[in-house]
Each structure stands twice: as structure tokens, then as C-alpha cells.
Amino acid sequence: MRQGSLVLAAAACLIAGCGGQGSTSDSSTSIDDVTDQASLDKLVEAAKEEGQVVWYTSVPSERADEIAKMFTAEYDIEVVVQRSGGEDLLQKFLLEEEAGRVQNDVLTLSDPAAFISLKQDDVLTCFVPRNFDSVLEYARDDDGCWIATRMNAYVIAYNTKEVTDPPTGFDDLLDPKFAGDLAYINPSFSSGSLIVTAGLANDKGWEWFEQLAESKPFVVKGNNDTMQTVVTGERGIATFVNSTYVSEAKAEGQPVEWVFPEDGIYLIPAPSAVIAEAPHPAAGKLLADFLLTDEVQQVMVDDGNYAAMEDFPAPEGQPEIDEMKRLEVDYDKLAGESKDVRDQFSSTVESAS
Amino acid sequence: MTTLPQQAAGSPRRGRWGSAVSARLVLGGAALILLVLVVYPLFWLVLGSFGGTDELTVSNYLRVVREPDLYRALLNTLLIATGASVISLCAGVPIAWFISRTNIPGKEALRTATSVSFMIPGFLSAIAYVVLMAPNTGWLNELVERMFGLDQGPFNIYSLLGITAVTSFGSVAFVVYLATAALDSVDSGLEQSAQILGASRWKVIMGITWPLVTPALLASTLLVFVHSLALFGSHAILGLPVQIYTLPTRIYSLFAFPPDYGAATALSMVLVLLTIGVLYLQRRLLKRRSYVTTEGKAGFQAQVDLGRYRWPAFLACHGFFAFAAYLPVLVLVLASLTKSRGLGFGWDNLTWANYRYVMFEYSLTQRATVNTLILAVSAATAGIVLGALVAYINLRLKVRGAKVLDYLSTIPLGLPGVVLAVGLVLAWIRLPIAIYATMWILLIAYLTRFIPLAVRSADSALRQIDPSLEEASRISGGSWLRSIVEITLPLMKGGMVAGWSLIFVQVIGELAATILLFSVGNETVAVAIYQRSEEGHLEEVSALSVLVLLATAVVLGLARRLTGASVTRW
To answer: Which 8-state DSSP code applies to residue A33?
Structure first.
């Protein structure tokens, strides 16, 4: 009997990837916030005993690897980076969480509405890292349950060979002269698009989409497909796309240009959170804390993202946050009605086809 | 010395008794493994469709049935699957016959082209066809526009016809592989006798050859049909932009956060029912008669002289493969050599950098290659052995319930990858043994997902073999295992190699389940390709894919050479 349960425990340990000794988890739970050097030292000590941190992240792999190396250089703790598309990672995490076999310590995605739901389900550890107060106010949960690591700006993009007179804003996009030219990302397959769609529905009303439907938008699966469609010229204009994809395409010398819509910009926080049942809770917090350091934030800006912390310059070629009109999205509301938004979108856009 | 006669008298009896036990052990073990592999995850899915462990309800089904889009999606799915089956049969059957039975020039090239058409991952061939046949910018459209001075080219890949064609290009190999294997094992003496008796060549083909390979044709049609039901990648790339929904794209959209597992699994049951229905039809059609064509002696293969039709046939086959294989590969190769897709062709846009990157700089490549090779070889080998045993139980043993095994072993093919993957996670994550987050879960996933290919290949091969051969061996004292290993298996070799190759190739390209199940350290080549494509580096994706295609072609060529040599010796 005793032996059996021992074997079970050992097996569970193997699956969950137990790192350090049993005692470490007790000491780490006593650290709630990282406010001063003493609490940081204590966290580092506990994290080192755990020896490892598992990071599920949708940050592009080169960036993720770079950040992992920086963390290991700083704290001498190994980072296991599981990089994948945001939707796939969230799926994997939810299944593991549901089965009580959480594999990762930190989760970094680009969907604040998902993190609001995860917080409601008590899946996240809430804690306040060192630089909590420097994080943009609209990019963090007040209790520290999730905090943005970077900000995604959604912009209009167009093919410079195909479009000579680019649209200036969301209303302009509906001009009949752009009919047949628009690509739109499907909110059923992309969380970024879901947020922008919800925002547009709120700011412009569903009438905007009824008009959009008349110009027969090409509804693709994600940021990538949109860029592909615009770069090749199959469609001239991306209604909106994550600006990092545009800056990368521009850097490659592709014939694309961006437009920062006159209506304003959807600037969406891409949050990180520490998981409540993390196998390495202290190391997880330490990594989450590390993501909000100047070095890591600079990596984000260099990669074409906006930093999540104040006082960082905008990524190259993009307007400063102070100078832009930022469009708000009610993520709390969206967290409860994402299915309705998706259904409304598909019925509106399909009805015209 | 005096005890010798006694021993001699006793040994056959012991042999037979031991034989029965070993037979029961091996076959029972195979049945058990199949049940665990398929039924256990399926159980979790069915449970999920009825609301999970807390309370049982049919509300998911009611919700799904009331969905007005469901019927359009169902219709589209059926149209695509039926169309792909028809195209695959119409193209695949003549190609198989040319390869197996005629003096068409360049047979090896045809075999390779078949494999290549099968090896290109679905989403990549969809992307290649976007490059070729997108209405405004497709190369072929621009070519036609320039040649005939048109404003708009004739092709539109974003259409039901386009999706169906791309789907069939990826599945014609099911027909060619299985039909070639079957034709190779039919003794052409039968055909010759008929000819000597005065039947015309056409009559021989229609009256003798095709009826004899019916099991293979039905099996491969079933594979194409069911395989097409569950595809996602190409349907999403070519159908979604123009609001052509299919069941798989509807099911995938239900996994968006917050995932609606109940509705997704309930909707998947429609596909399960379709799979069962198609298999039932196939069994009914095969029940009517025996298809035994192999009586043990070396199959004598006479070649039909195509005469003046040799080169037209050659052109027709390669004309088909121009679309099914050469053009998509050409697009991939060109893309892999360019710096940037928006810049057009020109010397200043050419580079080897993509190859250098994926071979030497991309950290995943090496690890993923080793993992994939291990997984593909073990899944294909274990799968085909298991498949052969299941087919044997179904066809040779008069056991109650054998039929059920046959059905169960086909269902996984009709499930979209993500659905099966969710079932696998739910099933295997709970065990107190470390299977989840190891290579084992991937091996289990591949076995579960592709066991249908093995069972259907082995089934069609076994139907051609006369059971009396094995009985003869056993009557003359051979043990059950020995009769199987020395008589039946070698005769099934063609079908087994075909099944092995089908699984091998599918494992290399498998993404839907892998993406949920891989963990750091056990990435596969498909994951490596996906990562780069997900981050938008299509040129590097093309380079990596070209390398994977080459490597896969080499392994398949080797496998055919190795087994081909022993077939002729046999």
C-alpha cells in the first residue's frame, strides 16, 4: 500500500517534472511580492534550489531564446522554452491544467481576455514584481495576476505596388474604391483579430461590418496569411495586422507600407503570468520579474513591439505612445462574450457573400 | 535412445498445443493493443461530447444539430471527399496499371512522382497552389493572361473545385500504392489464359484484372475519402477566405478560446459516423465473393506492350504529376532560393542563405530530424505489424467481435487531428506513468492516428491470399507462428511495404496532433517547419521542406529496394 502510493507519487513527480526538494515549495509560497532586494534575494535562493523554469511562450523563437539566455546568465537557472503559436499553447496549457498536470511555470501569450478568464478560474498566481509600478497602467492586472510583457499595435498595411492612394483610417477602408482589395483576419482563428473585431464593433458598430461585407473581404486565418496575401499582391490592403509583421516585411525589402489609422490604434497588451500549480513556483516568479527588466523590454522594442513599461521609445518607425490616440477595448466584457463576437462577425460578413 | 520414438510421437502434439497458445497470445495481444490505442482515447472524446464526467447530457448534440451552418459545411465536406476520391481513382488506377503491367518508359520516375505527391504536407501544397493559381496573382493565371491577352486568368484555387483538386493531389498515392501492390501480386497467367481463350485485351482488363484487385481499389478509395473528410490545413487556407466552410474548419474554430470541447467532439461524431458508414459499404461490397488470386507460386508478370501508346501514356501520367507534384515542388524550390517573395525573380534575389540557415543555424533542425526518423520508422513498423495482425483476425479467424476490431481500427482516420489529439491528451495525461511529455506519447499518437492505413493496406493484401496455403503448412507440422511468418507475411509483402510507406510519410508530415503533444526535446520536423512558418519565414520553410522531401524520398527508395530485392528472390 505504502509502496504503491510512493510509486504513484514518484510517477506523478516524473510527469509534473519535480525539480528541487520538497521543502523549497514551502519557502517559495511565503514570498508574495518582490518589493525590495531582500525579497528578491530570497526568491533567487528558492529559484536556484528549483534549478529550472519552464516557459510557454508565443514570443518569436529567436527572441525567446535570447531572453532565456539572458536569464540563465543572470541567475544561473536553466530555462526550458516551449515556443509555439499562441492558440496552440493556450490549448495545450488548458488541457494540462484541467488534468492537474501543469507542466509550465510561466505562460506568455498575446490575449488579455484569455488571462482575465484564467484569473477568474484561479489558475494564476498573483504577485507584484519589482517594476510593477512602471508597467503601463492599462497593461496589467491590478492584483498582479497577469502583466503585459509587450504591446502589440494593430495597423493598416498595404502593398505599395498595388495601392497608390492608401486608406487613412477605418472609415476610409470602406470606400468603394477599395472593394475587392481588403484582407481581414478571421476572429475565429486569431485572438488578436477577435480583440480588434470587438473593438471595431464597439467603436464603429456592426454597421461598419455590414459595409465591410459589401467590399467582399478576403478572410484569412492569421497575421501571417494576411501579410502573405498583401505582399504577393493578391489583395492590396490588410484591414489590420500586428505591426511587428509589417516591420519585419519592410526590413526584408518587401513592397509594403503601414498606415497608423487616423481613428487611433488598438494597442493590445500581450500578458505573462505565473501559473498557480507551477512545478517551479519561485523560478517562475523570478522569470516573470525578469521579463519586466529594462534589458528584456529593450529586446521587445528592438523586435518591433512596444514595451510594456513606461519611458521606453516606440519601436522604429512607429509613433510614440504619448503621441498616438490609443483605442480602448473592454477585455472584461470580451472575456464573457467572445463567442458572440465571432458568431456576429461570421454571420455579418457571410450574409453578403 | 529408447525414448526417442516416444518423444517423436509426442512433439507434434505439443507443437500444436504450443501453437494454439502462441496464436492466442499474439492475436489477443494485438487486439488488446488496438483497443487501448483507439478505444481508450475515443472513450474520452465520446464522454466529452456527452458533457464530461460531471453530468451526462445531449445538449452538445442538440446545439450542433441546430447550427444552420452545419449542413452547408457537411455538404462541402462530402463534395470534397467524393470529388477527391473520384479524381484519385481516375488518375491512380491507370498509373498503377502502367507501372505494374506495361512497358511504359521511366517507371521509377512514376513511382517517385507518386511518393512526392504524397510527401508534400497539405498546408504547403495549398500555399504552393495559392502562388500558382490565386485569381489575381497566380503564376499560371498571369501566364495565360499574357499568352491570350486576357484581363483575368481562368484559375481560382479559392473554390470548391480548387480545394478538391489539391486534396486529391495529396491522396492519389493511396490508390497508386495499394493498386500497384495488388496488381504485382496477381499472377498474370490468369490474364494470359483468358487471352488464349480468345478474350480481347479490353475484356481481359475489365473481366479479369480489375475484379481481382477490387479489394485494393475499395480500400484505397475508402482511405482517400475518409482522409479527405478530416483534412484541415488545405481547407483552411483555400476555403476560409471565401467562406467555404467544411466540418474540420468548423470543428477547429470551436477550439478557439474559450474552447467548446463538448460541441467540437459532438460535431466530430458526425465524421465518425461517416467513416463507419463508408467502411460498412466497403465490407458489404467485398462480402459477395472471394478475391483470392495468389496461390503461392511466384507471380508471373507478363508486360503488356503499349506499342504506339507508350509515349502518350508517359505524357499523360507526367501531365497529371505536373500538377500533383512537379509544380508545387517547383514553387517550393524557387521560394527556398529567394531572399524575399515580394521581390520577384532575378539574380539579385537568389540566395543559398535559407538552406544554410535551416541546416546549420536553426537550432531545431538536427534534433527534430533524429526524433522524426526514430518516430516514423518505429510507428510505421509497429503499425504495419499490428495492422497485419488485426487484418488477420478479421479475415481468418471466425471470432465473434472481429468485425468490431475492423471498424475501430478505421475510425481514427476520420477524426481531425486536433480532436484526436485532445482525446489522446485526456486519455494519457492522467496515467501515473510518464508517457505524456515524452516521445512515447507521440509514438502512441501516430500509431493511433495511422493504424487505419496499416489495417486497410494489410486487409486488401490478405484478401488476395489463399488461406489454404497456411493450412497446408500447419497440417504438415508447421506452428501457427511459423506458417504466418514464412508463408502469409511474405505473400503480403507488397501490401505491407505500401502500408509501411504510407504511415512513414504521414508521420513525417503530421502536425495537428504533434503540435499539442510535443514538448521541449522531442520536437519533430513538422514542428520545426510549423514554427518557422508560424513566424512568417516562408522561404526558410520552403528550404526545410525541400530537404525533408529529399530525405523522405531517399528512405522510401531504400525501403522499396530492400524489400523489392527479397520479393523477386521469393
So the answer is: -
